[in-house]
Amino acid sequence: VIGAHQRDLPGKTDAGTAYVFLRSGSVWTQQTKLTAPDGSASDYFGRSVAISDETTVIGANGVDLGTLGSAGAAYVFVRSGGIWSQQAKLTAPDAAAFDNFGFSVALETDAAVIGAIFDDHAGGSNAGSAYVYLRSGSVWNQQAKLTASDAASSDSFGRAVALAGDVAVVGANQDDHAGGSNAGSVYLFSRTGGSWTQRAKAIASDSAPSDFF
Q1: N or C: which end of the chain has fewer CB within 10 A?
Q2: pLDDT value of position 70
Q3: Closest Cα partner for 123 from 148, 152, 102, 166?
Q4: Are 16 and 3 spatial neighbours (Cβ–Cβ below 8 Å)?
Q5: pLDDT at position 172, please?
Q6: Which of left, alpha, beta for 154 (phi over 0: left; psi -120 to 50: alpha)?
Q7: 6-16: per-residue pLDDT in tens?
Q8: What's the rounded Cα separation, in Å, for the pair 45 and 53?
Q9: Could you tell me if 128 and 150 are in contact, meaning their C-beta atoms sit under 8 angstroms apart?
Q10: With 0-12 CB in 10 A as exposed, 13-18 as middle and 19+ as buried, what is 119?
Q11: Is 183 helix (H, G, I), strand (E, B) or coil?
Q12: Whole-angstrom distance, CA of residue 170 vs CA of residue 137
């Protein structure tokens, strides 16, 4: 799945698209082109993509939710035969303007992690967060909201996310620490039962200012 988040659609500048390719032997062929059924200009659908088996999640960090500009959303599509259909549209329950939910996405089977890099919370303005969703049948529900234990303003926590089993990794590329301003860091969370706990914070041994690790 390949995102083209600034692809123009008729009357919708920068609405965005995503393309699905399949491999047969050594040849890759486009199977379909995905767009948001409710897409609008500057949605940036395709900013992030993830795929697992017959499911793909597409981030659209520029989506407006009512009056909340660029709150962001993520769209889930499932494939049956050769046809991809939208299964869900994920949004943050506590969505706010300019959160940019959907800037990053990760997917494994029935679990997804969605980054919201400019989410404001107790940690600070634009500190960022990541939301965990689980699928039961065809219904997706939020399980947790992840934030850094040492969150600070403009960390951009959620810039990148990854998921494997009961472990989630979240990048915060503008985190300031002893290595310098915007040196960046990565946080590791693990799940026990339904609870997610931060287990580690990784930084580069040779961190320097503006590394954006």
Answers
A1: N
A2: 98
A3: 152
A4: yes
A5: 98
A6: left
A7: 999 999 999 99
A8: 21
A9: no
A10: buried
A11: coil
A12: 27
Q: Alpha-carbon distance 186 to 4, whole Å?
A: 26
Q: Which segments of the chain are extended strands (E)? A: 2-4, 17-24, 27-34, 45-52, 55-60, 73-80, 83-90, 101-108, 111-116, 129-136, 139-146, 157-164, 167-172, 185-192, 195-202
Is residue 10 within 8 Å of residue 66, measured between CB atoms?
no
Which residues, other chains included, contact 122 with Cβ-Cβ below 8 Å and sequence gap of 6+? 151
Q: Tokens 């002893």 map to which residue?
A: 178
DSSP state of 152: -
Taken in order 67, 72, 76, 82, the sign of the CA dihedral is positive
Ranges of the chain with pLDDT below 50? none
The one-letter amino acid code at 168 reads A
- C-beta separation of 55 from 39 below 8 A: no
* CA separation for the pair 146, 85 (Å, rounded): 29
Query: Is 34:61 a contact under the CB 8 Å cutoff?
Result: no
Cα 161 from Cα 132, distance rounded (Å)? 11
Q: Please state the φ and ψ torsions of residue 106, each to the nearest 5 degrees.
A: -140, 150
Closest to 140 (Cα-Cα) out of 198, 63, 104, 86: 86
